[in-house]
Automatic annotation (TrEMBL):
<comment type="similarity">
    <text>Belongs to the ABC transporter superfamily.</text>
</comment>
<keyword id="KW-1003">Cell membrane</keyword>
<dbReference type="InterPro" id="IPR051535">
    <property type="entry name" value="Siderophore_ABC-ATPase"/>
</dbReference>
<dbReference type="GO" id="GO:0006826">
    <property type="term" value="P:iron ion transport"/>
</dbReference>
<dbReference type="InterPro" id="IPR027417">
    <property type="entry name" value="P-loop_NTPase"/>
</dbReference>
<keyword id="KW-0067">ATP-binding</keyword>
<keyword id="KW-0547">Nucleotide-binding</keyword>
<dbReference type="InterPro" id="IPR017871">
    <property type="entry name" value="ABC_transporter-like_CS"/>
</dbReference>
<keyword id="KW-0408">Iron</keyword>
<dbReference type="Pfam" id="PF00005">
    <property type="entry name" value="ABC_tran"/>
</dbReference>
<keyword id="KW-0813">Transport</keyword>
<keyword id="KW-0406">Ion transport</keyword>
<feature type="domain" description="ABC transporter">
    <location>
        <begin position="4"/>
        <end position="239"/>
    </location>
</feature>
<keyword id="KW-0472">Membrane</keyword>
<dbReference type="InterPro" id="IPR003439">
    <property type="entry name" value="ABC_transporter-like_ATP-bd"/>
</dbReference>
<dbReference type="GO" id="GO:0005524">
    <property type="term" value="F:ATP binding"/>
</dbReference>
<dbReference type="GO" id="GO:0016887">
    <property type="term" value="F:ATP hydrolysis activity"/>
</dbReference>
Amino acid sequence: MTLLTMSNIGFSYDEKSVFHNVSIQLNRGKLVGIVGPNGGGKSTLLKLIAKQMEPHSGDITLEGKPLAQYSMKALAKQVAYLPQHPLSPAGITVEQLVQYGRHPHQSWFNQWNDKDAEQVNQAIELMQLSDILQQPVTSLSGGQRQRAWLAMILAQDTDLILLDEPTSALDIGHQIEVMESISHMVASGKTVVLVIHDLAAAARYCDELIAIGNNAVVASGSVNEVVTKTLIDDLYDTNVDILYAPFDQAPVIVPRRQVHAKQ
């Protein structure tokens, strides 16, 4: 079932085209990875969906309603957005950060209530943060910190979650930790769209992939439809082999190295 549709989107920075006639459909309950070379517009795509930027042409609809008709507060109840490098206030604890996810649901007449506490507790449990609630966010390891931010997003209780490179700069252990946490979010009924550079993780965890290059969507669909030698070679201007993991047959991208003759 369709949650969000982007139709013929165009967007430019300082007259330099980033997108031209881009169309995307996001289905409910899926983990969707956005892949492609640096500078291709992946993060911009998330910002357009999060209404951090406005498209110069085309239409975006969420739940059948034009995105332009949502106020930012109303949108924050439908879409949660986590940028690549979020900044936390000095001294804020994990528990306080997760509680901040309920901010869009607060107002002068609607203060903290039982539902807020329930959402926060569920997020803490799902992200396995109970043992570090009183620790400052700045004291956490990379994987713990990302799980804390994900818990805040989860407490926001939106149908659609947008994550910009949530595993960047993490070692393989923490990457797996974060991707497993994101998988739990999807299993709980959320739709998650993430920008990801690690093609191996994208192929292993994502339900669908969207490949962006040359200011356009060059492919979208299941992992096996997108991760092909021809597409990866063209998209990244490289030369790879595609192997398949024995456990689940997920494609594994192996770069071919050049052979340099010794002098």
